[in-house]
């Protein structure tokens, strides 16, 4: 196709062409012009095919544009064809080939267009094809742009180029199609693989479901097993709280191979021995080897159980080892689990299991790993674990035991027992050839230091070979030295690996040069520890440096690993102190991230705690920890932390203390525990006894222990119950008792100055204390009531309070810890006393027998401060800390109404009824008094104070008095309240004081007002004109006031005895005992009093039962007792036997007379003088019922048989009427009768 015959310029429009169907081949043309015609026809077909391509390539605009430009060139070329028939003939074949490629391309594009969606990968390949077509078009355009004379001259060359362009177009299209084919086959292959993979995943999912079901069955069986066996989960593989790491790659190869050979049965005689003891000194890598081989056996399904001992928590308890191993074996082997469960069901209290009772056939090659046996607390001459194994090793086959430890004396002695000696293979790490250990340490250090050098850009040759060899030589073949050295060198805070390596080598070489001048078995390791500590101390300020020793001592002696946040709280340090102190000790401690408040601080190796407490190794006194002194400090801090314990620490909604709330029934128990018993408090509860037993018990610690035992010993048992660890309480209490009894005697102990700069010895004997006896009582209570204490923390208090021996201190403490009384009130008829508790419940008790009549619970959870009975004694008002006032029916206990009278969460401090029962009032901390009519309680009048109001009371004349924190007592005229208007009323009188007014009382005649103040003073005022009469000075703040007849005022105090004052003289008449009352109430008969002392309710006659002072006695009750033994007077007729005790008494409505019932007579006394006005013969039983008529002219009293009631006129000697109950014999209704006058009684 000679381009020289084409005149390039603007292309004329090509003749119309038609697109051939796909697959149509050009027809051969004969004759002289056959080649030219053939090329022309082929080119027309190509143009038609490309036009189709252009239409089909809309999904790829780049390809569409390239094809359009190519069409333009080809059409111009076809239009200018002329001559050179043989060249046309040669080009026709290439054009036909190109046509077939274009038709294949169109099939692909047509498929894409019909789907309506072009994949991204295809779009990219089309774009790539367009780019290559554009390259060909651009080359053709360059030729086309030349003048026609040049094209004619170079026609042969241009013809060859045209053929090459056609072939290139053919190649690009063929490559595109081929690439698509390969891509399709690859996609199909990958899709099939993906399908197969998904099928595999489905199969795996089904298997996981099966495993999950099996795991659920295991977990279902795990719950009772865990409860019975109490395994130490922290001691299991992958669950240890200490730092466990595996052996470094390509190290300890020979040792691990030997352990695998021992386990396999195909390696006799090594595999014939069921026990392998791997032992070496500290720092040799025993635990690392144990963890690595246990991990390998676990993955190979050969590990039956493991126990990684450590000096923290239960992992050091030797009694936990075998029960934890049994627990793991039971989960792994169902047949063993079945036998074990049967044994536990037969004897739930079983402490040990005979091997012959539960040894089903285990499969071969089941390993049990016990690591660091020397870390268990075992003071026996021969290891307890080894003695047990020695007894039953022949019956434990095919189980095999790998035990690692230091060669401690009691452990070495255990392996000398005959049965163990014959069945144990010993592997001493120190007897492994030194070159092997040195090789492994070299491999480790070379790799670690190379990584450090890379991190700090120190070059590939760092460190120099001789320096690495020097460091390896200083390790003394201890892997722990190599690990600590690497951590010390890479300290990110220091950022100077080269300097640290130089310093380390210098110190180590200096110590090595001294040789035998030190008694330490690890002089270079000790020097490394001191170097790390000294470098850290230099970075700390004076305050943090002084706390470094305290923090380190607590970390190394704590019973379990603690987080930095927990340590801050336990040690009483400010938040973040422990992190700031330990930040510079990353070489020997693992400090969790700042945002992590739960992960404990890790110790790189246990050789560090050993170093700190050993004076022969830690020669720097500023770092040496003296265990007994440190334990004393930790014990003190534990006792201080446990001051946060309290009754019902979880804040459970308990309606009554009789409710048996089981721990297992508490919803969200773990979440509640984490909120209310944080980690520091939990640690203190679990381990204070252990620290105390290791401490020097000085006077301060003993005082703190006394306070704990007096205030929080039962709270501690509650916390243990909720935490599920009551089982350890008995042993812990026994240990503390033994410790204290030994401490009572004279002993030597060391006193700690600020940072142990100077320790001196002093002899001192501890004073005698009741703490051991109290702890013994607590121990007995735990033993006796263990099932209750362990299952119900809240029911424990009631159990101990009711069933513990009467004379034990623990019972008295339990009584105090029950919900204490906050308010008291007598009913006007004297039958009932209402007791409001701090838990929001109200108990209605019989004032004579103490029997519970009703229990009111609407306020539960809110503190109740105000109680008041209606004048009829049928209703009760109560005000609580949530700002509400409740109205109760006394007979049924029903809640009749609730008023949200005051601001929410503003405590209602006092409530009161008017004497006619028409009005009620409430006082609150929201600075208001609310008054409402009982007939229409929706309308309330608000009376304002300048501060919270503490007390409100109605006078006989209807006035309302209120005492406030604003140091005033205001008198309000309730008769002037406009109930239908919102007009505020003003007080008719304001009594101002120098102190807060806590309590107010009004005399029966409404003449005097008594105000009890916060400064222990009682101020008397005249109500009518507000004149101050006198002041009565007490010893503590006033808690309750009540006027008695004959000018007496009874006052209850918070911290001093209840006192009776003569208001006319200001003299103290009587005092009740030597203690104060948290709450008190005086009955309307002026005889009975109720008050709380040490959390207990006391109801008795007063003041007749109390010791009298030298001042004259003017109380009515006192007169009754005095007159009973006084010689007859002209006003009293002798009736034989003098009366000895009062059976009943009642005050007349005018309060001027008192009727007293004795065994053989009735007497009427004048209240003002105490003179006997009349004596009437009367026969009474063990008790009697008596009442006055509303007018005071008549009174009635039951007789001896209680079946008759005699009605007397006040001035008559004989009864005017005798009434009778016609009840059948044995009916007890007469025993419960109460005499009440009806308003319509004639003459009444």
UniProtKB/TrEMBL annotation:
- UniProt keyword terms in alphabetical order: Repeat, WD repeat
The record, for SMART domains, names: WD40
Q: Which GO terms describe its cellular component?
A: transferase complex
Q: Where is the Nephrocystin 3-like N-terminal domain?
A: 271-406
Q: Does the keyword Signal apply?
A: no
Segments for region (Disordered): 1-26, 1124-1146
**Repeat (WD) residue spans along the chain:** 857-898, 908-942, 942-976
Q: Which Pfam families match?
A: NPHP3_N (PF24883), WD40 (PF00400)
Protein name according to UniProt: Nephrocystin 3-like N-terminal domain-containing protein
**Organism this protein belongs to:** Trametes cubensis
């Amino acid at each position: 196709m000679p381009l020289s015959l084409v005149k390039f310029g603007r292309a004329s429009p090509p003749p119309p062409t038609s697109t051939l169907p796909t697959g149509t081949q050009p027809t051969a043309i004969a004759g002289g012009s056959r080649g030219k015609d053939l090329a022309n026809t082929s080119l027309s077909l190509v143009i038609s095919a490309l036009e189709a391509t252009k239409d089909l390539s809309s999904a790829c605009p780049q390809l569409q544009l390239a094809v359009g430009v190519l069409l333009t060139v080809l059409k111009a070329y076809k239009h200018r064809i002329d001559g050179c028939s043989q060249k046309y003939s040669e080009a026709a074949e290439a054009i036909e080939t190109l046509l077939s490629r274009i038709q294949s391309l169109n099939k692909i594009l047509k498929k894409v267009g019909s789907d309506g969606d072009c994949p991204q990968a295809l779009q990219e390949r089309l774009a790539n094809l367009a780019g290559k077509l554009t390259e060909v078009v651009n080359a053709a355009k360059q030729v086309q742009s030349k003048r026609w004379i040049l094209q004619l001259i170079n026609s042969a060359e241009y013809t060859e180029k045209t053929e090459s362009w056609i072939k290139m177009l053919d190649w690009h299209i063929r490559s595109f199609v081929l690439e698509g084919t390969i891509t399709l086959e690859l996609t199909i292959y990958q899709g099939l693989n993906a399908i197969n993979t998904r099928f595999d995943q489905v199969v795996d999912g089904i298997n996981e479901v099966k495993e999950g079901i099996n795991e659920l069955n295991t977990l279902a069986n795990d719950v009772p097993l865990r409860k019975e066996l109490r395994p130490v989960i922290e001691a299991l593989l992958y669950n240890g709280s200490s730092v466990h790491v595996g052996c470094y790659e390509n190290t300890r190869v020979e040792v691990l191979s030997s352990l695998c050979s021992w386990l396999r049965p195909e390696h006799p005689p090594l595999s014939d021995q069921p026990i392998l003891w791997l032992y070496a000194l500290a720092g040799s890598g025993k635990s690392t080897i144990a963890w690595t081989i246990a991990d390998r056996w676990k993955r190979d399904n050969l590990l039956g159980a493991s126990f990684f001992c450590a000096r923290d928590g239960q992992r050091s308890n030797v009694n936990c080892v075998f029960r934890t191993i049994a627990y793991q074996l039971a989960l792994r082997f169902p047949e063993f689990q079945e036998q074990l469960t049967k044994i536990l069901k037969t004897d739930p209290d079983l402490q040990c299991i005979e091997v012959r009772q539960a040894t089903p056939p285990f499969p071969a090659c089941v390993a049990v790993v016990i690591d660091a046996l020397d870390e268990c607390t075992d003071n026996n001459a021969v290891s307890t674990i080894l003695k047990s194994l020695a007894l039953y090793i022949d019956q434990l086959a095919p189980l095999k035991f790998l035990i690692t430890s230091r060669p401690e004396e009691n452990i070495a002695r255990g392996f000398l027992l005959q049965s163990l000696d014959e069945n144990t293979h010993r592997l001493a790490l120190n007897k492994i050839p030194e070159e092997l250990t040195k090789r492994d340490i070299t491999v480790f250090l070379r790799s670690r230091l190379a990584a450090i050098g890379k991190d700090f850009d120190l070059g590939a040759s760092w460190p120099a070979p001789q320096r690495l060899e020097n460091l390896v030589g200083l390790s003394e073949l201890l892997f722990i030295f190599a690990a600590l050295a690497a951590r010390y060198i890479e300290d990110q805070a220091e950022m100077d690996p080269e300097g640290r390596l130089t310093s380390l080598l210098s110190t180590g070489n200096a110590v090595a040069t001294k040789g035998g001048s030190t008694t330490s078995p690890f002089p270079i390791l000790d020097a490394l520890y001191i170097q790390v500590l000294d470098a850290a101390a230099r970075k700390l300020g004076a305050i943090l440096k002084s706390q470094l020793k305290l923090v380190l001592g607590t970390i190394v002696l704590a019973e379990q690993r603690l987080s930095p946040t927990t340590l801050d709280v336990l040690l009483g340090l400010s938040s973040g102190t422990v992190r700031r102190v330990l930040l510079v000790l990353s070489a020997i401690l693992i400090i969790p991230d700042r945002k992590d408040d739960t992960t404990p601080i890790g110790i790189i190796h246990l050789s560090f705690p050993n170093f700190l407490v050993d004076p022969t190794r830690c020669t720097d006194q500023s770092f040496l920890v003296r265990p007994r002194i440190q334990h004393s400090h930790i014990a003190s801090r534990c006792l201080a932390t446990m001051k946060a314990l309290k009754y019902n620490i979880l804040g459970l909604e308990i309606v009554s203390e009789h409710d048996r709330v089981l721990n297992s029934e508490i919803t969200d128990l773990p979440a509640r525990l984490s909120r209310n018993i944080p980690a520091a408090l939990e640690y203190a509860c679990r381990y204070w006894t252990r620290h105390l037993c290791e401490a020097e018990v000085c006077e301060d610690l003993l005082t703190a222990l006394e306070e704990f035992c007096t205030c929080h010993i039962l709270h501690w048992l509650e916390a243990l119950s909720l935490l599920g660890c009551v089982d350890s309480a008995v042993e812990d209490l026994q240990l503390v008792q033994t410790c204290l009894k030994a401490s009572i005697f004279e002993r030597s102990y060391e006193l700690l100055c600020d940072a142990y700069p100077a320790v001196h010895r002093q002899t001192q004997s501890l004073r005698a204390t009741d703490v051991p006896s109290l702890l013994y009582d607590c121990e007995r209570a735990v033993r006796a009531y263990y099932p209750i204490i362990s299952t119900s923390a809240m029911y424990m208090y009631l159990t101990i309070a009711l069933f513990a021996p009467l004379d034990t201190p623990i019972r008295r403490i339990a009584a105090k810890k029950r919900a204490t009384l906050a308010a008291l009130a007598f009913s006007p008829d004297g039958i009932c006393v209402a007791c409001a508790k701090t838990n929001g419940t109200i108990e209605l008790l019989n004032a004579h027998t103490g029997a519970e009549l009703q229990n009111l619970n609407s306020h539960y959870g809110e503190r109740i401060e105000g109680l008041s009975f209606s004048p009829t004694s049928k209703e009760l008002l109560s005000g609580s800390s949530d700002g509400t006032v409740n109205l109760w029916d006394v007979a049924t206990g029903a809640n009749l109404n609730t008023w949200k009278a005051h601001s929410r969460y503003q405590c209602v401090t006092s409530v009161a009824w008017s004497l006619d029962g028409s009005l009620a009032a409430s006082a609150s901390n929201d600075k208001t008094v609310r008054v409402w009519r009982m007939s229409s309680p929706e309308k309330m009048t608000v009376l304002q104070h300048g501060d919270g109001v503490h007390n409100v009371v109605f006078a006989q004349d209807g006035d309302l008095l209120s005492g406030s924190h604003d140091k005033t007592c205001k008198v309000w005229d309730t008769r002037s309240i406009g109930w239908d208007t919102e007009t505020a009323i003003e007080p008719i009188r304001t009594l101002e004081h120098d102190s807060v007014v806590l309590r107010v009382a009004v005399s029966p005649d409404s003449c005097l007002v008594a105000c009890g103040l916060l400064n222990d003073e009682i101020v008397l005022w005249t109500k009518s004109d507000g004149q101050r009469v006198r002041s009565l000075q007490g010893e503590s703040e006033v808690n309750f006031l009540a006027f008695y007849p004959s000018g007496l005022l009874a006052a209850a105090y918070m911290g001093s005895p209840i006192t009776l004052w003569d208001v006319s003289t200001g003299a103290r008449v009587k005092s009740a005992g030597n203690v104060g009352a948290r709450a008190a109430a005086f009955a309307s008969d002026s005889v009975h009093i109720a008050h709380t002392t040490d959390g207990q309710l006391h109801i008795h006659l007063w003041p007749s039962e109390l010791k009298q002072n030298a001042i004259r006695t003017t109380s009515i009750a006192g007169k009754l007792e005095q007159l009973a033994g006084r010689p007859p007077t002209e006003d009293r007729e002798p009736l034989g036997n003098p009366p000895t005790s009062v059976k009943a008494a009642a005050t007349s409505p005018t309060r001027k007379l008192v009727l007293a019932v004795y065994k053989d007579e009735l007497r009427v006394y004048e209240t003002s003088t105490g003179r006997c006005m009349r004596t009437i013969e009367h026969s009474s039983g063990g008790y009697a019922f008596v009442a006055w008529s509303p007018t005071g002219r008549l009174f009635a009293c039951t007789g001896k048989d209680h079946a008759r009631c005699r009605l007397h006129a006040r001035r008559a000697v004989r009864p005017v009427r005798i009434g009778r109950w016609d009840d059948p014999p044995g009916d007890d209704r007469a025993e419960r009768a109460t005499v009440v006058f009806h308003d319509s009684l004639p003459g009444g």
